[in-house]
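Thread: "does anyone have the structure for this chain?"

Original post by V.I.:
We have the sequence but no experimental structure in hand. Need at least a predicted one for the grant figures.
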Amino acid sequence: MLKHLLLLILLVGCGTGERDTLRAYREAFAIGDFAKAREILSKAELTKSTNSQLLHFMEEGRLAYVSGDYQASVGFFNRAIELVDAQYTKSLTREGSKWILNDASGEFFGSPYERSWLFYHQAMAYLKMYQNKIGDDPRRNLFSARAALLAWDSFFQEWQRATEGKSIYRHDLVAKVVAAQVHEATGIRADEQIALQLYKDGFQLLKNLSPTYASFNSKSSEYVGVVTETLTEKGQFIADVKDIAPTATASSTRDFLIERIISLIQKLRPSDLSTLTAQLGITADEINKFKKSEVGNVVVVLEEGVVPAKIAKDINLGVQGLAKLSKDKKTQQDIARIGSEVLAVFAVNVLGLNPRGTTSYGDYRGRHALMTVAVHEFGIEFEIPAIESGALPQELWLQLTNEKGEKTQQPLNVLTHLEDVAKLSLEEESSQRIVRTGVRVAMKHVAAILGAMTVYKSMNKDGKENPFAKYAAIASYLAASKGIKYSERADTRSWQSLPRTLRMGEFKVKAGTYKAHIVRKAEQNSWVELRALGDVTASKEKAIFTYSLPQM
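Reply from O.Q.:
Generated one for you, C-alpha cells below.
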C-alpha cells in the first residue's frame, strides 16, 4: 500500500509540474513574448507524450503562425487535421460513438471548438503565404486557403451529423466571413457570387446562433435554455425573439455584414437590392444607410488575447442522484440497487455503524433500512473541465492615417468571442461527461468497498474478531478512494494559445501607404490610441492584414 501511495504522490507532482509549465507558456504567449513561449514549450511533457500529440501540433502550429513561419505552421496544422481524422475513425471503431471526450490519462482529442479552429489557422497560414509570395506558385496558396475554408464548412456538417443536430456548437461566424473574404480576394466573378452567399449565411448565423453567446446577447442564458430544450425534444434550432437582447457588439457586427452584402450586391447585381428585406429581414432604413458602400480593398483581422485556460470543476453526486442522470433505465436500477445495498452493508457491518441496543429483529431491520437510505446518497466526487467567464469584449476601432495626416476609422467588429464558444461547448459536453464519468466512478467506489470488505473478512478468520480488521478495511477504502479521485481528475489540457476574440474591419481607401492604429472612442468624438500596428499598403486589389496581439 505504501508503494502505491508513493506512486500516487509522484504522479500528482508530475501533473502539477506540467500544469505550471503550460501556465508559464500561456502567460508568455499572452504578452507576445513568442521566443520565451517557444523555449518553455520545448521543455513541456506534451512534446514527448504520444497522448498529447494533437495538442503539441496545435501549439507548435500556432507559434509558427504568429512568428511568421507560415510554411512550418501549415505543416503542423496539416498533421493535426490528419490526426483528428484518424482519431475520429478510431472512436467509431472502438466506441461506436461520435461524441469524443478527453480523459485526463488518455489521448487528447480536443474540444469541438479546438478541432474546428485548426481549419481557420490552416487557411490563414496559406493566405499569408500567398500574400508574401512564398513558394513557386504563390497564387496556388490562395486556392489552398479557399480549400481549407471549404473543409472547415465540411467539418461542421459532419459534426452536426455526428451529434444528430443536438449540439448548439454547429458553426462559426468566422468560418463564413473569412471564407467570403478569401473568395473575394481571388477577383473571380463566380467566387464573388459565392462570397455574397457566404455573407448572407453569416448574417443568418448572427441572427440565430450568435445569441447563444453573452457577447452578442445579454439574455443568452435564457436563449440557450430554449434552444437546448427544442434540440432535445424536437431536434430543431428554435428560440423565441423575446430571449434576444442584442449587445452593442451584436449591432456593430450586424452593420458590418449588411454593408458587405449591400456592397457586393451593388457590384454584382444591383436589382437584387430590393429583395433583402423579404430575404434577410434587412430594413429599408438599413439599406439606405449603406447604399453608397463599396467593396473594400483593405481588410484587417485582429486575433486578440488568448482564450481562458480550462479549470477543474468539482462535481459531487450521490449514488441516487447519479442514477437519475442516466437515461438508461437498467443503468439507473443497477446503480441504485448495487450502490445502496453494498454501501449499506459496508456502513453497518464494517464501519461499525450497526444499530446497537436493538430489542427486536424489526428494530434492527428498521435501522438497517434507515442506513440504506442514508448511504443511498453516498458522495461520488470527480472533476470536469470548465471555463470561467471573463469580461465581455470592448468596442475597438481601426484608424488609418494617410501621408497627409488625414484619418479614417472603421469598427473592429467581433466575429467570434472564443471565450463564449469554449465555455458553452464545455457546458454542453458536461451532461454527457457527468453521466459517463459518474457511472464509472460509482462502480470504482463499489469495487473499493468490496475490496475493503475482503480485507475485513480475511483478518477475521475462524470466527475470531481481529480488533484491527475494521481499521484495515477503512484504510483500504480510503487509499482506494484517493486513487479514484486522482484517476478521475479533469482533463484540463487545452489549446492554450487560441485567440480569445477575433475581430475584422474593412476599408475602402485610395492606393497608398497608411499608418494603422487600434483606437477607442472617447468623449466629444475624439479618439484614444491604444496600439500602433505599423504601415498598411493599399492597392486596387483586396489585401487582408492579420495581427495577433495581447488583450486590449
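V.I.: this helps a lot. The two ends are 52 Å apart (CA to CA).
O.Q.: and The beta strands are 298-304, 311-318, 379-386, 397-401, 407-411, 413-417, 501-507, 512-521, 527-538, 543-549.
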